[in-house]
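# nightly structure sweep
# worker-07 picked up a monomer target from the shared queue
# config: single-sequence mode, recycle default, output format = structure tokens
# input follows
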Amino acid sequence: MFQIVLWCFAIATALVVALNAAFMAASPRAWFRLPGWLRTQGSLTERKYATGSGAIQVRITGALILFGMVWCLYETLKARR
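# output follows
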């Protein structure tokens, strides 16, 4: 039972991280419009990171998170062969 709860928590966490990363990579301005309970912005402010070079940093971070998740999934599935 504990293992099922743990897997559900891991899947939910991965989905939230993937959603945040996708919004970060696609549109930092839209990412700042996500609800506070869903967005993981930390100390980032919309004024500084929604446009300009700050937006580029947010987009790169989102792309790196997505790349890391895909890479880990690929390596996990490759190792099971």
